[in-house]
Amino acid sequence: MARMNMIQAINSAMDIAMAKDEKVVVFGEDVGYFGGVFRCTAGLQKKYGKRRCFDAPIAEGGIVGAAVGMGVYGLRPVVEIQFSDYIYPAFDQLVSEAARLRYRSAGGFTAPITVRTPMGGGIFGGQTHSQSPEAIFTHVCGLTTIIPSNPYDAKGLLLAAIEDDDPVVFFEPKRIYNGPFDGHHDRPLTPWSKHELGEVPEEYYKIELGKAKIVRPGSKVTVIAYGTMVHVCLAAAEESGIDAEVIDLRSLLPLDLDTLVASVKKTGRCVVVHEATKTCGYGAELVSLIQEHCFYHLEAPIERVTGWDTPYPHAYEWDYFPGPYRVSRAIKKVMED
Amino acid sequence: MKTNPLSLHIPEPKCRPGDSVDFSDIRVPAAGGVARPAIDVDAATIRDHAYALIRVLGDDHKAVGEWNPKLSADTLRTGLRHMVLTREFDERMVKLQRQGKTSFYIKCTGEEAIGVAQAMALDAKDMLFPSYRQQGLLVARGCPLERLMNQIFSNKMDNLKGRQLPIMYSEPDYGFFSISGNLGTQYPQAVGWAMASAYSGDTRIAAGWVGDGTTAEADFHYALTFATVYRAPVVLNVVNNQWAISTFMGMAGGERATFAARAVGYGLPALRVDGNDFLAVYAATQWAAERARRNHGATLIELYTYRAAPHSTSDDPSGYRPGDEAKNWPLGDPIERLKAHLIAIGEWDEARHVQLIADMQAHVMAQLKLASSHGTLGDPPPDDPGSMFEDVLVEVPGRLQMQREEMLQLRSEIAAQKDSEMAAQRGEH
User: Fold this and answer.
1) Could you say which residues from 151 to 210 on chain B have a Cβ atom under 8 Å away from some Cβ of chain A?
2) What is the pTM of this model?
């Protein structure tokens, strides 16, 4: 075991994947010599040569398009889109091409690619370095969407994503790269080195895609979250004084519906949390599924806590970011009915 | 016959940290060597210009050749003043970012001639679609620094209401389009604005800027296609400053051809210009603007320069390039070169230059005092959070009105909770 932050864990996953399989290639803007603007690919070019880890032109559509072509050839590309706010030029290649290639060729061609991309706010990045566009991708048939919340999961999930034979969009919540940010922005950040999930095996391991994790068992209310919001929800559960069960989805699609349904049937109450905007966010899908599967067990309307339906406002970062007070208030509210 | 196996080419810059700077492959032609074609020239007859380098200021600091715009000494001094002001403004803002007064900043050090000379060569009513490194355009157009600082500080006088990342200015009154963090999006928009101007029988033209790295984005190619198809009155600029964050310009295709040469395939005229030569930048821009205004369509200008600054305050170039590249850049520094020219023609001296720098520093400090009086980032905390729901649409829809009420309610509850926590703490002591 080693102490790793999320950046190191992600780096370790790519390192192991490259060592294990010559077909794994890593590329993207600034990922080669420099090692990425967030340092996730640091050292990979030096270790594996620039043939296997290299810079790309600033062309997200080109990066994903080339990855699809390389995947069709038989390689296993892992590409980085520097910020998920910049993924949109690649949208056509992801939605119309990578996602549907297996289907439209009846399995004749496939795109076993992984698209890594930092997401989310809390870093004063303004509207072009803070977005959470995950729901746009979960709406697309043929894409797998993963969002880890800690170093241990990030490594195991990324290795599983790379080995997956279909395209995976792997979002990395950049606010928790260095520590489990719980939304209390006026308090010092606890680094991953002081957190149990910063204990990461140095060797190979995988975490199956599509398995949620109960990160705080409880009996009164189910709180569903992913990414940075998992830590906000843990703090909120604590502060609410209510015996809340917090579930980290880890994988949005495929979704571990069984774990959610079992929990809500047990608690009878549910709060769904994400940082992304509310309308047509992934929370809408979760709420819909829970009422489909748990309607007769629900004792109160399901609450949603999300970002507001506006772009991310630079100066009002903490009025926008759904913090622990908001989540805790929602937990208490579902307990009232 | 035996076929050798293929191998993949990955471009690599000549020098990395620890290497001696080597710019020996950069060809610096003598000033005055490139012909200045007629404004209505057929693009097909000047394809060589895409591989040349228009320079006016010679090694002796005299202005030579057909591209000499023959500007008055007063105009040259104005240009120098704007460039020095731009540089001093940048220096001060980076210091303030280091002090936590703002979250982010981008300098244009070494590239000041581009924004400044181009704004001066264009008409004041022409519309600018910049990237994030052309603050010289706003300085030269007389936008008060206080306005820019208010935006940088996201303070209560910020014309963008605290919504945008610092330096992502939007200044409609100065013909300066809202800067996007997404690369290249403004390029086809500049063409579209120019098409609308032509459609409307207007006389104004548009100008757009991207960096060398951004030429790889599809938007760059959309812009060139639309510009040539509709003969749009637009000046399209590529600022080739050699570096896109850590990525050298070869990774954008600069190893094989110049960026100006991108125009050739589209049938557009291209000018390749020494971007650190104020007079050459001015003259090329003037030529392209006049061509556009006379309805002969778009020109692509490659401004050959060097990004002496880090990409942004979030970047540390010592991790990917030798630290003394800027000092050794074969095309020198734009301020030093214009200063030397003014001295060479007897219109400037060292004492006046020292005074100019002191005046510009004092101007920056005076503007800073004004801007700081309205606050810096988070100090005091911005007090109109409800405004974040405005301008999503022309009117605030019901859904957002409800969210605004909820947000304001939460804010007051959180404030009350903090107050009671502090009261409890005081009680304990």
Assistant:
1) 154, 158, 161-166, 168, 180-183
2) 0.96
